[in-house]
Design goal:
The complex is a heterodimer of chains A (710) and B (210).
Chain A: E1 2-8, E2 11-17, E3 23-28, E4 34-38, H1 41-51, E5 57-65, E6 75-82, H2 87-102, E7 109-111, H3 117-125, E8 137-141, H4 144-149, E9 156-157, E10 160-161, H5 170-187, E11 191-194, H6 199-210, E12 223-226, E13 229-233, E14 236-240, E15 243-245, E16 250-253, H7 258-275, H8 279-284, H9 287-301, E17 317-318, H10 319-325, E18 331-332, E19 337-347, H11 350-357, H12 388-409, H13 415-438, H14 448-471, E20 474-480, E21 483-488, H15 496-507, E22 511-524, E23 531-540, E24 546-549, H16 560-576, H17 579-594, E25 605-608, H18 621-631, E26 641-646, E27 657-659, H19 669-684, H20 691-700
Parallel strand pairs in A: 8-11, 11-16
Antiparallel strand pairs in A: 1-2, 2-3, 4-6, 4-7, 5-6, 8-9, 9-10, 12-15, 13-14, 18-20, 19-21, 19-22, 20-21, 22-23, 23-24, 25-26, 26-27
Helix pairs in contact in A: 7-9, 7-13, 9-13, 11-12, 11-14, 12-13, 13-14, 14-15, 16-17, 16-19, 17-19, 19-20
Chain B: E1 9-14, H1 21-27, E2 33-39, H2 45-48, E3 60-65, H3 68-81, E4 86-91, H4 105-126, E5 129-133, H5 139-148, E6 151-158, E7 161-165, E8 173-176, E9 179-183, H6 184-191, E10 204-209
Helix pairs in contact in B: 3-4, 4-5
Classes of the chains: A alpha+beta (710), B alpha/beta (210).
Chain lengths: 710, 210
């Protein structure tokens, strides 16, 4: 079976390798991608006549397909076979030229337009993108500054430098390229794992310029598939770097692969098998794209077409129903403070299990064939016919449960354990994402009423669980979405296992005892009004471990020094339960900081930028960092990180910060001291201490207690 | 809130200083059944009931669009969804989704123009008032709606409530919980004008009358 694909104007090149064998390539010149058009017969007949005169269209015909998950029967649609790479152009012309000429907008609906070309090939021809052999991979890395500078001497292969030259010279770079060519020839990898896809043009072009025979692919050359772009998703700006392809090898761009970080090659290959998105496409895909890919594969098998535009709106409903439905998941405001003897119970994979248990899917919720009251509080009907989304999710739930069971049996630290964890990790993210996708505006198979129905069941299940736990003698301290934190309310409550068993049976979804805590501290909101829903810390009972959520130690922007100090303060708090002792301990970190004894590498702050340098009005630290990046010839795009050490927070110039890769060991102790005080404030805020009180304590304390030095 | 009587057909609700004008007019229209074609959470029921009770939702039927294509399809569907009891159709934030990069501009502009025409045809053929607004829209999109509409009403938020400016309508005051605020036209109507040069205006004066 195949592992790499290249769609060109000549056809689709498919690369295969049998176990122990060499890679082979076959070019399919017969394949023609198809889009589909649905509409009134007369409109389709006219469209057919017009498209017959379009040189980009090679053939048309009538096909029988479902145009929606809600269709009872397939209908006749117009199949339009286009020249390779012409699908989107033909679709745009139908929408912007042919339709406006004669019909109202939306008279003709188009399907199977915006599919990835390689995935389309696999699905349409039944070509599995799951490799037969264990894939051979080779990783290449070049630090950001060297990449921007085009300095090849810092190139590493599998973590080791390819050259030992310290000076950058043409001769040194030639040696690097020759060494790289040797490694590629020796390893003959199927997958190139690159620190950045920009390595492809850099290495290829430089090899050409220097006359070194070094091809990254199994044949010479490379292709640019797409340029870099910036996008917005869920209100957050992201950056998608340029994409490249080389013949015969799949490229994994580590700078743009969430899934590589979460699941590595085993996780990626598991998802390739489910979605039939080829490895290179999948590696750069978002979780939502992968989930959509899995759904599209299922849709192909059911002869359901994939809509190009999201046309289907929700039905008109009574505003009072909307009032009841338009709510999120369950939240139970935490009791701010430190609580002893706490148990956390979680519903495992609550939302996907709800979809499966209650058959919730875009086509089953508010179906046309039932008039029943199946969704609590909303009165929506749910069809009995097996739902599309549950049929996609159930195998993932089952397989993940199986992986977890095998993990329990596997020995610690074995290669098998790592592989199982990677696969389980990748599947977890699909399960986390699947619910949100029901409400996503551009979801191919989503529907807002399905989203509402899932939330309604989730609220009901959590409220029932809360009632059962309280009846069993427990007090609910906090609850959110799928988790509850409880502490004994009476001297001899019903054992938590027995209650979990009962609640699981009632809900049809397992409620699991997630963790036992010696204590849990729920942090107040910054405005002081009630508890933060997502910020807490718990000391796991009988283990030297804290579960931290929402605090500085967990935030990606926090530097390593402050994160470590906050964890240390938590250990002090655990041992002493005394705010003064925590502050004394804090004083020790401050003293070390002010003495200049902190490694600057531990002071690197990471910030994700939301706009490019020219878009900022204020002279912030981010702007100072961006200016320094620009000085180095490195363009940072919205959605990318900047990493810097604060060296003088009193100035507004670029001297305010130093980039992580720049030489230097000075830092602004005052700035980091403030960050330490904030982190300490988070630890002590459940006890009524804020950072001002922490600062005051530090100011007033001349001598620290022995506790600070234990 | 004192509002002008709603006339059959499409009314463009101009909101030069903000949003919420369409919702304000709809809330005080005293309609039996309202069809609300929603975008961007304008029909957030929590906002609608924030200073009132759940009863304001009675007779209100809502459907939400999340893409330009859904919005157009929803306006089309409103024609079928309207019943004999429907006496108001509301479409706030009309242009928002057509400016959200869901497709090429040529496709979306055409879709938007068709949506405006459909709303006008809906109002004309059924004799039902249709209120549409396009706050934050491009000038071109606002103009397209204005051209499709049979009339225009301007809604401006003030400290005392919305000031409504409509042909043949003079706002005499603003009512709050236990108070009301007069306008100059009110006093002109009560006392008469001293001269003829002072223009009548709907802006509130700074004197509150208990």
């Amino acid at each position: 079976m195949a592992f790499a694909f290249d769609v060109t104007g000549d056809g689709v090149r498919v690369w295969r390798r049998a176990p122990g064998g060499d890679a082979t390539v076959r070019t399919d010149r017969e394949f023609r991608p198809s889009l589909y058009a649905a509409g009134p017969d007369a409109a389709l007949a006219t469209l057919d006549e017009r498209l017959a005169r379009d040189p980009k269209v090679e053939a048309t015909g009538v096909a029988s397909r479902f145009t929606s998950l809600r269709d009872d029967a397939p209908r006749d649609v117009l199949r339009v076979d286009t020249a390779p790479g012409a699908v989107r152009q033909v679709a745009r012309e139908i929408r912007c030229i042919h339709e406006p000429d004669r019909w109202a907008p939306g008279t003709v609906r188009l399907y199977n337009v915006d599919l990835d070309p390689t995935a389309r090939y696999c699905l349409a021809t039944g070509t599995s993108p799951v490799p037969d052999a264990d894939l051979r991979s080779l990783s290449l890395s070049l630090p950001t500054a060297a990449l921007a500078d085009g300095d090849l001497t810092a190139l590493t292969c599998e973590g080791a430098p390819l050259a030992t030259d310290l000076e950058r010279t043409d001769a040194a770079e030639r040696r690097v390229l020759r060494a790289l060519a040797d490694r590629l020839a020796a390893a003959d990898p199927d997958v190139l794992v690159l620190s950045s896809a920009d390595l492809v043009p850099l290495l290829s072009d430089r090899a050409d310029d220097m006359g070194v025979d070094c091809s990254l692919g199994r044949e010479p050359g490379y292709r640019k598939l797409a340029g870099a772009n910036t996008y917005q998703s869920y209100g957050r700006v992201g950056h998608s770097p340029a994409r490249y392809a080389v013949p015969g090898r799949a490229i994994v761009d580590r700078s743009n692969s969430f899934l590589w970080d979460e699941g590595g090659l085993p996780g990626l290959l598991d998802l390739v098998e489910r979605s039939w998105l080829p490895l290179q496409v999948l590696s750069r895909a978002s979780i939502g794209t992968v989930f959509t890919g899995i759904q599209i594969r299922e849709a192909f098998e059911r002869d359901v077409l994939v809509p190009w535009r999201a046309w289907e709106p929700e039905a008109f409903k009574d505003a009072r129903t909307l009032h009841d439905a338009d709510r999120g998941g369950f939240t139970f405001e935490p009791a701010v403070g430190v609580h002893e003897d706490v148990v956390e119970v979680d519903f495992a994979s609550l939302y996907p299990r709800i979809m499966c248990e209650y058959n919730l899917s875009p086509e089953t919720v508010r179906c046309d064939c039932h008039d029943t009251d199946d969704v609590p509080g909303l009165g929506y009907s749910v069809c009995d016919d097996p739902g599309f989304v549950p049929s996609v999710l159930q195998p993932i739930l089952d397989d993940r449960a199986d992986l977890k069971a095998r993990l329990a049996d596997a020995g610690p630290d074995s290669a098998e354990t790592a592989r199982l964890e990677a696969r389980s990790g990748a599947l977890k993210w699909i399960l986390v994402t699947c619910f949100g996708y029901q409400g996503y505006r551009n979801s191919k198979f989503g529907r807002i009423e399905c989203h509402e129905a899932i939330n309604a069941h989730a609220r009901e299940i959590l409220l029932d669980a809360k009632d059962a736990l309280e009846t069993g003698g427990w007090r609910v301290l906090h609850g959110i979405v799928d988790s509850l934190w409880v502490t004994p309310r009476v001297e001899d409550p019903t054992p938590i296992e027995a209650l979990c068993e009962r609640i699981s049976a009632d809900a049809g979804i397992p409620l699991e005892r997630e963790d036992d805590f010696a204590w849990v501290s729920f942090v107040p909101r910054q405005d002081g009004r009630g508890g933060s829903l997502t910020s807490y810390v718990g000391k796991v009972a009988d283990r030297d471990e804290f579960k931290i959520r929402g605090l500085a130690a967990r935030r990606r922007s926090t530097c390593g020094f402050v994160a470590a100090a906050q964890r240390d303060l938590l250990r002090t708090f655990d041992a002493r339960r005394d705010p003064g002792a925590v502050c004394d301990r804090l004083a020790r970190h401050v003293a070390r900081l002010e003495a200049g004894r902190v490694d600057p590498a531990d002071l690197v702050v990471r910030t994700r930028i939301s706009k490019s340098l020219d878009g900022y009005d204020r002279r912030s630290r981010t702007v100072a960092a961006l200016e320094r990046y620009r000085d180095h010839g490195i363009e940072r795009h919205p959605g990318q990180d900047v990493r810097y050490v604060v060296v003088d927070d009193t100035v507004r110039s670029r001297e305010r910060v130093r980039l992580a890769f720049e030489a230097g060991d000075d830092y602004d102790a005052t700035f980091y001291r403030e960050r330490l005080a904030r982190a300490a404030g988070e630890v002590l805020s459940p006890l009524g201490w804020d950072r001002d009180r922490v600062r005051g304590y530090l100011r007033d304390t001349r001598d620290t207690t022995l506790g600070a030095f234990e | 809130m004192e509002t002008p009587p709603l006339e059959p057909g499409l009314t463009f609700v101009a909101q030069p200083d903000g949003r919420g004008g369409v919702a304000a007019l709809a809330r005080h229209a005293d309609a039996t059944e309202t069809l609300w074609v929603d975008t961007r959470g304008a029909a957030s029921t929590y906002a609608l009931t924030a200073d009132a009770d759940r009863s304001v939702l009675r007779g209100l039927r809502v459907a939400r669009a999340f893409t330009a294509h859904q919005h157009h399809a929803l306006v089309r569907r409103a024609v079928d969804a309207a019943t004999a009891r429907t006496d108001l159709v509301v479409a706030p934030n009309l242009a928002a989704l057509y400016e959200a990069a869901d497709g090429p501009d040529t496709e979306l502009d055409r879709l938007y123009a068709a949506t405006c025409s459909l709303l006008a045809a809906l109002g004309e053929s059924t004799g039902v008032p249709v209120l549409a607004g396009a706050p934050d829209a491009t000038d071109a999109h606002r103009e397209t709606l204005r051209e499709a509409a049979a009339r225009e009403v301007t809604c401006r938020p003030t400290d005392f409530g919305y000031a409504v400016d409509a042909p043949g309508f003079t706002q005499s005051g603003y009512w709050g919980g236990g108070w009301w605020q007069t306008t100059i036209p009110y006093w002109v109507a009560v006392c008469g004008a001293v001269g003829t040069s002072a223009p009548a205006t709907a802006d509130p004066v700074a004197v509150a009358v208990e």
